[in-house]
Amino acid sequence: MMEFENLKEIIELLKETDITELQVEKDGTKVKIKREKYLQAIEIPAHRPSVVPSQETIVKEIVADEAEQRLITITSPIVGTFYRSPSPEAASFIEIGQKVKKGQVLCIIEAMKLMNEIECEADGIVVKALVDNGQTVEYGEPLFLVDPT
Q1: Distance between CA atoms of 84 and 103, rounded to whole angstroms?
Q2: Helix (H) or strand (E) holding 4
Q3: Phi and psi dihedrals of 48, rounded to 5?
Q4: Which of 13, 47, 97, 107 has a CA positioned 20 to 30 A from the CA of residue 135?
Q5: Which spans in 16-97 are helix H?
Q6: Tens digits of per-residue pLDDT, 68-126?
Q7: Are 107 and 149 in contact (CB under 8 A)?
Q8: pLDDT by residue (tens digit) across 132-148?
């Protein structure tokens, strides 16, 4: 007859392996050990339906990309302080959405107590101001985006 200690040893060996079933026979005694293999819970993220952009959205994105590529960037030719108007009480030289002509003053940059007028490089519409009034700007820093249409 198989000893109880031998059975415990066999059970421990099974725990350390991938074997799920074992049958042993000794001295006319049969022992069959079967173990169910349980899988650990695996978290599967909920399936999100993929959002397919509509034809209209795709066309709008293409048009926006093309428009962005044709924009002219007006940059600062000097280091200084950016001002949108000639004095604190005065109106801005230009407003966003306004049509401008080549050579029209867009802003001034103060450098060493000198006021330098920054002119538009082409006819178009001012789409965006990229700096705030009173902000220090660096050489080559973008100031405005102009759509030359």
Answers
A1: 16
A2: helix 4-15
A3: -100, 130
A4: 97
A5: 55-70
A6: 567 889 999 999 999 999 988 999 999 999 999 999 999 999 999 899 999 998 899 99
A7: no
A8: 999 999 999 999 999 98
